[in-house]
Every structure is written in structure tokens, then in C-alpha cells.
């Protein structure tokens, strides 16, 4: 949300945030759910599920590692499930 | 007496309640700590746990809890006159709903943002989870049956509203798409959606061709179609259409239709409140309903307290407060504004409903013929509110017939969204019970939705004597209120336990808890034993008897649990580790 410069814009911003709070959270939840599935597919081989495109997804690991910690915690694993990824 | 005085009295008590009582509760009872790290900061994930500005969160909480229920309950309760309804709404909000919503929020925030259901499970044990699940199951069944009836009733009485409601579906999908794709303020798309809906309402009110009036299509009220009178057939058709619609709507992802429709409804709530309070102020109408209806054959005590649930105190608020709002609290001290003032917001909606109905009738005789019995009040209450609201809107220069259609559109929109949400939740609960009891085939999305729709249809189409199909809806209203109050009783019990264990004064939550459980048990015993069992002067009503007996059993169970837990220090100790 852009910073409001006058009181009217400020109140309109607050009103807008109020109205879209629930809707935005739902969309973010849906997107996160899709991201979680994507993470799972990328890391599937390390969990014993064959990944036919491992050669390509390997390139994504450095990018995905930044989100790996939050992902495994969301999946109910308090500690990293992968020995060589010591995020926590 | 002018109807404005009702609003002045109610809003005055709400102001004093917020200014002084909620301050006392915040500082001396809940002892809010501005330095407490709330779950929103502790588990900030940018999705569920997000620190949110307090007024934004208040607005979101208020629009989430306010819907059709605080309109229907007070409109029916006017049967006993405006004074009992006014006093229960005003003092119920200030002393029961305020501390309930506020307490649920604080308790959840102090417990990692966990919901009331989870806290109940931890405190009392596994059987509490089943009790909780069944109360919610019954509550949701009632909600669906009652609101399907409310919508069908308004579609028949205000056929000009049908077009706007069906237009809202593609509009909501478009607004949802706009929210998803654009980064700027969403006020413009929402206002366009409202303008199109209300424009359709205006045109349909004046152009008979655009009114989808099933009764007229079938030859008017006296006509008979396939052995049924036209009104009963119209009920059957509308309820079938609604249930088919809600079956599909509840199986869609929430962000496609449900959430954007909520977004439009939030704007409608603001528009509706401004229109009604503005109209009341400008029109300054006289109260024509009696303060106390001495001709009422059904006693207000204790039925009043279960007829008005939402608007005075509602257990559903505890689910919202602990389910979502507690995860978004920026500071613990914000809970006072979000929780207490959220309840006040809904109380204000109930208050204007009382003012609208109390000032609607031309004479007291007209009121008495509309509210001739409690059953008639159930049938005619919402219609009286639509008429009263239409009359208030004339104060702002809006023609009464158009205003009536717009008010009907607002109520139906709220009820339709609740129908969708409640059927979706019902589906989840059926699936959860299927998993729990290893009946896998009912856990599928479409099977669970089908079972939910069938259960709702069976309830709402319940015929009562000679009154035909659709009678189930208004007959079930007191049961809905009871289930809602029981939920509030559980939440107040948990908050009281927490306070007691912390050696703080638990009276502000224990007193409303005892009051609610006492009234609920009394009202249910009276109805189950004397009204529905066939032992009293009335014929037996077996479905109501069974449902009422189950709810009464739950109420007694909760009472026993409360007594046991308060007397058992071990359970209290387990609870302390969480708090």
C-alpha cells in the first residue's frame, strides 16, 4: 500500500485495508498452498519419491533454500528433514 | 416518543461501556500488557499471522461477525414489545458480549493464537472436542435452515431483489479478480459493484417485468400448483434453487466467490448502517410499537434471551476472535478496541433494527396484528424490519419501495454468504467425523456437501401442521439462538477459568456465563417438555423435540463440565501451563 500524504487518502487507505484484509489473506493462503506443493515436488527425491525432472529442479535449490526453513516447519517438521540442509 | 431516543440510549450505554467498563476489564481483569509479544509478531508469516493496525482489525472483525442474524433475532423479539429487546441488546452487549469477544481474543492471543475449540480440548479433554464439534454441527445446520428460509421468504415478498442478488455473483467474481490483479485501492470496483446491484434493484422495483415473482407466475396467492398452494410451491422452488446454488458455491475455492462477496457485503454493511441511522436522525419517527406487549401469550422470560443471540451475545464471535483476529493483533492492548468495540458494532446493528421495527407501524393495532403470536412474529419479523428500514430511508429522500428492495438485497446478501460459509464448514465437520469414525466414503468433497445439503433441506422443508413447506426455518430460530448461546457459555467458561487461575476477579465473565447457561437450560426445558413433547397443551413436534433434547443435553453437559473443572485443581494446573 502506498504511503498516504493527506488525511483523506490516509482514511481511504485504512478503509481499503479493512475491507480487503480477509480476502487478501485467503489469496495468500491459496498461493502459499501452491508454493508448498511446488516445494514438495522439488524436494521429493530427497524424501524417497522419484523426481523425473531432478536435473532441472536442482538448479532451483539455491533459490528455494531461503524459504526451506519456513516450509518444513509448516509441514509439521520442527527440524530440517534433510541432513545436508542445516537451516535449524 | 421519538425513535431517536432508542438510539441515543443504546449508543450512550455502549459509549459508557467502552469508555469505563472495558477500561476496567482491560486494566484490572485481563491486565493487558503493551509489551506482550503477540502471536502476530511471534509467528509472523505474512498470511495468517500478520500484525495489523487496530482500527483496520476492528473493521475486519466487525464486518466478519455482523450479518443477517443480528437483524432476524431482534426483529422477531419485538413481539414482546421494544423495551425487553432494547434492554437485552444494550446491556447484553455492554456486559456480556463485550467481555466475551474481548476475552476470547485475549485468551487466544495468550495461547499462541489457538482457537477456542483447541483450548477447550486441552482444558477439558477429548470428549470436549466431540461436544464442541456437535454443538457447531447443530449450530451450522440451524444457520443453513434458518437463512435458506429467510432468503426464500424475502425473494417471495420482495421479488425486485432477486435480480440484484443474482447479479452479485458475477460482480463478486469480477471484484475478486480486480483485487487479485490490481495493487491500488479497491474502493472503485466495490462501488461500481454496489452501483450496479442497487441500480438493478431500483429498476426491478419499478419495472414489474424484471421482478422474478414465482407466486405471480403461478397465478397469485390463491392458486394451486400440483396440489400445493402457490406460496408453498414458491418456497419449495426457491429453497431448491438456493440449495443447488450453495452446493456448488461451497465447493469452489473461497477466493473465487465467497471472499469477494464478503468484500462487497462489508461495503453494504456500512451503506446500510449509514442509511438507517441517517434516516432515523432526519425522519425523527414516532415509536408506535408498545414498550411491552401485554397481549403476548408466550412469555418473554426466558425465551427473549435465546431469540436474540447475535446482537446481544453470540458464541460465533468467539470463533472469529480466536480463529483469525487473535493472530493479527499488533499489541495486546488493541484487543480492547477490536473485541469490545467489535461487539458494540454488532449491538449497534441490532439497535437500529429495534428502532426500525418499533417505528414502522401506523398504529399499535397494526403492530398487534402483525405480531399476533410468537409463531407469527417468526414469520413476519424480517418483513417488518424491511418495511421499517424502507420507511427510515425515506428520511434521506429514497423512495420507500426502492429502499425496501435495497434493504432486502442487503439482508439476502448477508444471509447468502452465511449460507455458503456455513455449508462449507458443515462439509468439513462431516468429513472430520467421517475420518474420526473411519467412514471414508463420506469424507469426499461432493459426498460431504451432498449430505450437508440433504440435512439442511430436511430441516428447512419441515412442515408445521397446516402451514406447509418452509415452516422449519422460523421454527428453528430459538434452537439456533440456544446453540449460539451455548458456544458463548463455553468461551466464557474458558476465560473465567483462566482468570480464576491467575487469581484475578473472574466475576465479569462468570456472571454472564451463569446467566447464559441458566437461561438456555430453562428455555430449552420449557420448550422441550411443555411445547414439543406433547405433554403440554400443544401437539408433539418430534423433530424439534429431538433436536431440543440434544441441545438441552449438551447444555447440562457443559454445566457439569464447568462445575467439575472449577473443582479439579489438576485440570486447572494443565491449563496454567498454557496460559
- In which range does the helix fraction of chain B lie? over 70%
Give the termini distance of chain A in whole angstroms: 33 Å
Q: Numbering strands along the chain, what is their spatial order in the largest sheet of chain B?
A: 1-2
Main beta sheet of chain B: strand number and arrangement? 2 strands, antiparallel
How much of the sequence lies in strands of chain A comes to under 5%
Query: Which chain pair has the greatest contact?
Result: A-B, 21 and 32 residues
Query: What average pLDDT do the residues of chain A reach?
Result: 81
The H/E string of chain B reads HHHHHHHHHHEEHHHHHHHHHHHHHH
H/I helix tally of chain A: 3
- The helicity of chain A comes to 55-70%
What share of the residues of chain B does DSSP label as strand, in percent? under 5%
Number of helices of chain B: 24
Written account of the structure:
The complex is a heterodimer of chains A (88) and B (579). Chain A is mainly α and 88 residues long. Chain A has one domain. Chain A is built from three helices and no strands. The radius of gyration of chain A is 19 Å and the shape is elongated. Chain B has 579 residues and is mainly alpha-helical. Chain B has one domain. The interface between A and B is medium-sized, with 21 and 32 residues.
Short recap of the structure:
The complex is a heterodimer of chains A (88) and B (579). Chain A has helices at residues 7-42, 54-57, 61-74. With 88 residues, chain A is mostly helical.
Task: Produce the secondary structure layout.
The complex is a heterodimer of chains A (88) and B (579).
Chain A: H1 7-42, H2 54-57, H3 61-74
Chain B: H1 4-29, H2 39-42, H3 54-65, H4 69-77, H5 82-109, H6 116-124, H7 126-157, H8 161-181, H9 187-206, H10 214-217, E1 224-225, E2 228-229, H11 230-249, H12 258-283, H13 304-307, H14 315-323, H15 335-358, H16 364-370, H17 374-393, H18 400-436, H19 445-460, H20 471-475, H21 477-501, H22 507-532, H23 542-567, H24 569-578
Antiparallel strand pairs in B: 1-2
Helix pairs in contact in B: 1-5, 1-15, 3-15, 4-15, 4-17, 5-14, 5-15, 5-21, 5-22, 6-7, 7-11, 7-18, 7-19, 7-21, 8-9, 8-12, 8-18, 9-12, 9-18, 11-19, 12-15, 12-17, 12-18, 14-21, 15-17, 17-18, 18-19, 21-22, 21-23, 22-23
